[in-house]
Amino acid sequence: MQISLSSIIRARLGKEARFIPGFLLRSLERIIRQDDLNAMLAAAHPAKGSEFSSRILAYLEISVEVQGLDKIPVDQPLIFASNHPLGGLDGITLVSILGAHYGDDNIRVLVNDLLLNVEPLRDVFLPVNKFGSQGREASRLLQQALSNGKQLVMFPAGLVSRLHPDGRILDLEWQKSFVSLALRHSRRIIPIHFEALNSPRFYKTALWRKRLHIPFNLEQVLLPSELVRARRKHYRITFLPPVDPAELKDSGLTPAQIAARIREFCYLKKNH
Questions:
Q1: Ranges assigned E (strand) in 11-57
Q2: Is residue 1 a contact partner of residue 119, using CB atoms and an 8 Å limit?
Q3: Closest to 162 (Cα-Cα) out of 171, 153, 154
Q4: Whole-model pTM?
Q5: Angle at 97 between CA 80 and CA 172, to 5 degrees
Q6: Which residues are 80's β-sheet partners?
Q7: pLDDT tens digits along 21-43
Q8: Cα–Cα nearest to 228, from 29, 70, 15, 7
């Protein structure tokens, strides 16, 4: 299995892809470090799911400290809501941990369609809702996972954490969809605090892109290379106590307010 940026672009753009110059494609392949990514995939082959994720972490010599997982219920379906500091690597790490804890068949992680190209994780990944026929299929798969009692892992910010004006690196606003799903399906929410950072280059690119009013999300192009640059990093992941959104709703909070409260709870953990 190999990543081919040109194939992905052709699949997404169709006939329009022929207008992209070859030198630009080769430059993008270097920026995302396609050769390094493919070497990583070859090292993890032919594993799938949590075993694949664990081999990726081992290949990168990444160590992970896990706190609080032993206190999480194993006999009920939950929604895990995590901050999103890294991009693909936080999803890979959570698949490794939760797959080992619950079994791969019992977890599903909502990701964007680009990560669906990582075939060894396709069985545990679910596409984020989009529009049109693809959106209807994504919605069907999500409802199926919920009905079958799968443990659902979500990144409510949608985008990777950014540098904020006060100098802190935090998620953007958490969207309320994870709260609405929890309320609709009578699930409790497990907030996850994932303590990790991307390189300064990523945050500076995002900052300058915003200052220059560039609409295209340039920093997202750097995320594959951020995965390669994570070698020998140490991460701390804390599973916080369950939150019952129904209780918060009964106290008068809207789903959007509940989402903001849980996000705040997730980051307050750092101060304790």
A1: none
A2: yes
A3: 171
A4: 0.90
A5: 40
A6: 153, 190
A7: 887 788 888 888 889 999 999 99
A8: 29
